[in-house]
C-alpha cells in the first residue's frame, strides 16, 4: 500500500507519488488533447489541455491510489454533440489516456535499456526511477481499461457496440461507481478483486517491457 510508505520510507513515498502524478497528468492531458483535436473545445475551455497536475487531480481517485494502488484523475468532460461521430469519437477520447500510458511505458523501457549499460551510479538510480514509472504507467493504463464507468474502458466498449445496444450499455454508467468500489474493496483474504483480475495482465506487460527482469508485482 502506497500510504504505508509515508511512514516507513518518506523519500520513496515522495518519488512514487510524484511519478503517479506525472502518469495521471499525461493520461488526462491525452483525453483533453484528443477531444480538442476531434472538434470539441470543452476540455480546452476548461483548462484541461495542459500537463499541469493541478488541473487533473481528482480527490477520490487520489485517495484510492493511496489506499488501493489504483485510481484515476479528474474526468475530462466533453460534449458529444460537438463530435462528428459521437459514438466512435467518444471511444477514441477514452482510449487516448490508456494509450498515452502505454507509450510512456514503452519510452521508459527504451531508456532502461540505455541506463542498464551505464557504469555510473546515478544511472542506476535513474534505472530504478524509470522502472517504477514503467510499472505505474502500465498499471494505470490497464486499470482504466476496465469496462466500468467512470473508467475509460466503459466508453471504449460503448464505441465498439452496434448502435442498437449503445443506449442500453450507456444506461449502466450510473451504476459504475458502485461496481468500481466492489472491485477495489478487499474481500478475498484481504485482496481486492481488481488485483486478482489485473495483476496477471500487468505482470505480463511488465515482463515484456522490463529489460532483463521478471515481473515486479
UniProtKB/TrEMBL annotation:
Reported cofactor(s): Zn(2+)
Gene Ontology, cellular component aspect: plasma membrane
CDD domains per record: S2P-M50_like_1
InterPro entries per record: Metallopeptidase_M50B (IPR052348), Peptidase_M50 (IPR008915), Rip2-like (IPR044537)
Pfam families: Peptidase_M50 (PF02163)
Keyword Glycoprotein tagged: no
Biological source species: Candidatus Gottesmanbacteria bacterium RIFCSPHIGHO2_02_FULL_39_11
BP GO annotations: proteolysis
Annotated localization: Cell membrane
Membrane topology: Multi-pass membrane protein
Regions crossing the membrane: 59-78, 90-112, 132-154, 175-202
Residue span(s) of domain Peptidase M50: 127-162
Protein name, as recorded: Peptidase M50 domain-containing protein
GO MF terms held by the record: metal ion binding; metallopeptidase activity
The keyword Ligase belongs to this UniProt entry's keyword annotation: no
Keywords, comma-separated and alphabetical: Cell membrane, Hydrolase, Membrane, Metal-binding, Metalloprotease, Protease, Transmembrane, Transmembrane helix, Zinc
UniProt family annotation: Belongs to the peptidase M50B family.
Amino acid at each position: 500500500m502506497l500510504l504505508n510508505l509515508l511512514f516507513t520510507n518518506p523519500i520513496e513515498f515522495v518519488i512514487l507519488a510524484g511519478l503517479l502524478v506525472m502518469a495521471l497528468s499525461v493520461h488526462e492531458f491525452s483525453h483533453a488533447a484528443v477531444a480538442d483535436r476531434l472538434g470539441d473545445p470543452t476540455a480546452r475551455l476548461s483548462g484541461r489541455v495542459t500537463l499541469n497536475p493541478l488541473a487533473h487531480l481528482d480527490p477520490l481517485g487520489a485517495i484510492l491510489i493511496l489506499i488501493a494502488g489504483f485510481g484515476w484523475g479528474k474526468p475530462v468532460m466533453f460534449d458529444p454533440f460537438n463530435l462528428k461521430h459521437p459514438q466512435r469519437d467518444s471511444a477514441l477520447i477514452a482510449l487516448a489516456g490508456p494509450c498515452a500510458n502505454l507509450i510512456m511505458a514503452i519510452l521508459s523501457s527504451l531508456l532502461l535499456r540505455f541506463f542498464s549499460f551505464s557504469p555510473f551510479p546515478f544511472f542506476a538510480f535513474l534505472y530504478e526511477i524509470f522502472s517504477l514509472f514503467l510499472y505505474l504507467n502500465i498499471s494505470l493504463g490497464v486499470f482504466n481499461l476496465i469496462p466500468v464507468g467512470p473508467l475509460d474502458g466503459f466508453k471504449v466498449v460503448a464505441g465498439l457496440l452496434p448502435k442498437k445496444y449503445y443506449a442500453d450499455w450507456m444506461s449502466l454508467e450510473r451504476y459504475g461507481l458502485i461496481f468500481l468500489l466492489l472491485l477495489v474493496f478487499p474481500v478475498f483474504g484481504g485482496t481486492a478483486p481488481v488485483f486478482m483480475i489485473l495483476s496477471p495482465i500487468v505482470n505480463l506487460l511488465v515482463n515484456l517491457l522490463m529489460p532483463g527482469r521478471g515481473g515486479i508485482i
